[in-house]
């Protein structure tokens, strides 16, 4: 991005006119293979001589300790968790992403605020409020939306890290087991992503394919976008 | 604009810059209401146990930017809103708050955050039934703070804004901005202005009158003794009615 563009007011007190780097976002539900693709993309970009910085949700040193503790408790109500995630996101944006873009880096973001909004809305947060909240967010150069069927996600989770409480949305589920809850929750999440795809100009990638095929698809799309 | 309070409980808030004496006044008010047997709940700014550790870390390590500071304060408020304010208001309790969303609006805008953005942040909460704004000149506030407290804290003084290298000067400049924001909000959010330079007792008298007025129509929680008496009365009444219709 030559010129910084924000969804809303941005950071009025910051001078961020010129950002020579590129902000590339990979979005999609749990188990869709985002982190694998981020890794592959990183290697490819570095091989071509680009400096790369990567980031992902809950990695801010400011909020990570508190958020980790809070996720174990039971008073983490929807608005609070939403604002906690927003703090994490803002901290990384101001202290990591923007400085890296200023220095001309490629920033690979494993998820962006779209994921946070989706999980908020599924938990009853007002969609308009959530969108306004992220008025400080930079508009990325490109957002890849890795889209897969719930069956694909289940397979990846089963062969990978296994079902987990938050990924299964157990905090809002009436189901008595992680599998049913996961299917129900991720279906709602996919629905939210689909709704956002047009609004935020997502580049949809068919993530039901193999890791290699997905990687080729992303690289091809990325090359075209960067050439323009 | 905040939504009006639709709950049976009443929401009473004090606001003002540091050193305006609002905490002293709300404490007196709290005790007075308790003495009269009212159901009261008190909550103060930045006190959510869940968010506290993060705020502490950020302050200690000076990690906050205006935006993250704004967001973490909103998270703290939201946590108290969901776990304390809203349930208490729904239950019919009088909720007293030492600082409210307006503190966020004033401080965050003074730090350079977009005014519209921060107002959206707090749209989940209600317009209080009474906002007492303790107005004081910057000279008087600085005088009170510097004579009473040993040390002004880093963020309280707005040291993160690089207004001055001297803490007292920075405090003054920062609080001046906050004061401006409060005055700007006064009409927008229907502040009742209290002259914070008057004697404490006089202020309290004025406040109690305002609170009594704001509590008009407040029914309170059903008193267990009272309601059983009402129940007996109703029983008797229906008995008489039955006898009448039979006769």
Please estimate the helix content of chain A: 40-55%
Low-pLDDT parts of chain B are none
- Spatial extent as radius of gyration of chain A: 17 Å
List unreliable stretches of 5+ residues of chain A: none
Q: Which sequence of strands runs across the widest sheet of chain A?
A: 2-3-1-4-5
Question: Radius of gyration of chain B over alpha carbons?
Answer: 22 Å
Total beta-strand segments of chain A? 5
* Number of individual domains of chain B: 1
Shape of chain A: globular
| Largest interface chains and counts | A-B, 35 and 33 residues
Structural class of chain A: alpha/beta
Tell me about this structure:
The complex is a heterodimer of chains A (228) and B (247). Chain A has a 5-stranded parallel sheet with strand order 2-3-1-4-5, with helices on both faces. With 228 residues, chain A is of the alpha/beta class. The termini of chain A are close together. Chain A has one domain: Rossmann fold. Chain A has helices at 34-47, 64-70, 78-102, 113-122, 127-133, 150-159, 178-199, 211-227, and strands at 22-27, 52-56, 106-110, 142-147, 203-206. Chain A contains 8 helices and 5 strands; from the N terminus they run βαβααβααβααβα. With 247 residues, chain B is α/β, with parallel strands linked by helices. Chain B has one domain (3-222): Rossmann fold (3-Layer(aba) Sandwich). Chain B is built from 9 helices and 7 strands. Chain B has helices spanning 22-35, 49-60, 66-91, 101-110, 115-121, 138-148, 167-188, 200-214, 224-246, and strands at 3-4, 10-15, 40-44, 94-98, 126-127, 130-135, 191-195. In chain B, the strands form 2 sheets. Chain B has a 5-stranded parallel sheet, with helices on both faces. A two-stranded parallel sheet of chain B has the order 1-5. Chain B is elongated and about 85 Å long. The mean pLDDT of chain B is 91.
């Amino acid at each position: 991005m030559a010129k910084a563009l924000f969804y809303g007011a941005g950071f009025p007190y910051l001078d961020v006119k010129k950002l020579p780097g590129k902000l590339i976002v990979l979005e999609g539900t749990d188990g869709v293979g985002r982190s694998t693709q981020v890794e592959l993309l990183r290697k490819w970009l570095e091989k071509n001589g680009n400096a790369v910085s990567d980031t992902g949700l809950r990695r801010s040193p400011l909020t990570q300790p508190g958020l980790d503790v809070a996720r174990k408790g039971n008073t983490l109500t929807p608005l609070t968790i939403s604002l906690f995630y927003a703090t994490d996101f803002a901290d990384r944006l101001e202290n990591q992403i923007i400085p890296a873009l200023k220095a001309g880096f490629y920033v690979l973001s494993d998820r962006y605020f779209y994921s946070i909004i989706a999980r908020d809305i599924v938990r009853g947060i007002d969609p308009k409020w959530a969108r306004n909240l992220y008025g400080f967010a930079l508009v990325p150069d490109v957002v890849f939306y890795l889209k897969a069927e719930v069956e694909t996600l289940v397979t990846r989770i089963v062969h990978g890290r296994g079902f987990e409480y938050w990924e299964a949305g157990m905090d809002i589920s009436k189901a008595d087991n992680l599998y049913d809850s996961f299917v129900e929750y991720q279906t709602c999440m996919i629905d939210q992503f689909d709704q956002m795809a047009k609004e935020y100009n997502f580049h949809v990638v068919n993530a039901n394919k193999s890791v290699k095929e997905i990687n080729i698809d992303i690289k091809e799309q990325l090359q075209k976008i960067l050439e323009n | 604009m905040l939504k009006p309070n639709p709950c049976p409980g009443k929401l009473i808030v004090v606001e003002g810059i540091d050193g305006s004496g609002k905490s002293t006044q709300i404490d007196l008010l709290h005790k007075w209401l308790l003495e009269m047997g009212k159901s009261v709940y008190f909550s103060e700014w930045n006190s959510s146990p869940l968010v506290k550790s993060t705020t502490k870390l950020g302050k200690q390590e000076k990690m906050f930017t205006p935006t993250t500071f704004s967001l973490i304060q909103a998270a703290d408020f939201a946590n108290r809103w969901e776990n304390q304010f809203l349930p208490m208001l729904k239950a019919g309790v009088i909720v007293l708050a030492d600082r409210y969303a307006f503190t966020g609006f004033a401080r965050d805008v003074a730090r350079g955050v977009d005014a519209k953005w921060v107002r959206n942040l707090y749209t989940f909460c209600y317009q209080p039934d009474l906002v007492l704004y303790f107005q004081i000149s910057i000279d008087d506030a600085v005088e009170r703070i510097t004579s009473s407290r040993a040390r002004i804290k880093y963020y309280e003084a707005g040291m993160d804004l690089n207004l001055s290298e001297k803490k007292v000067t920075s405090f003054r400049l920062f609080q001046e901005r906050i004061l401006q924001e409060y005055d700007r909000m006064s009409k927008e959010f229907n502040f009742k202005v209290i002259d914070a330079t008057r004697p404490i007792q006089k202020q309290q008298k004025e406040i109690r009158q305002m609170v009594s007025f704001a509590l008009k129509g407040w029914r309170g929680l059903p008193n267990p003794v009272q309601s059983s008496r009402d129940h007996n009365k109703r029983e008797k009444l229906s008995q008489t009615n039955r006898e009448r219709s039979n006769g």
